[in-house]
Specification:
By secondary structure, the chain is mostly helical. It is built from 4 helices and no strands. Helix 1 crosses helix 2, helix 2 packs parallel to helix 4 and helix 3 packs antiparallel against helix 4.
Length: about 100
Amino acid sequence: MDNPITFPTTPEAFNAYQEQLIGRKQSEKEKEVGAAWVEVFNLSYEDGLRQDRNTLAKDLDKLEELMVRHKDNAGVHKFAEASRAWIMEAWRQGKEAAEHD
């Protein structure tokens, strides 16, 4: 299945997709968090354009450190794993865009 989010994206588009996934409206706080992470995902897309695997690895390592620090918090793990997937997807889209230019 193709990913319905194309990077770079906007906070509005990302949050609308998240609401679709969870089947409800997001709280203002959830929207703020989503908007902040969209910046990270868009930067990952740019790293993919440059095929910068070093920065991708560092970003993923930071998420791993977060999970280790909060090893007993399932919510943190779920959030970090979702963020990891979006970072990797954005990077992949950037890499593919660079290869097609």
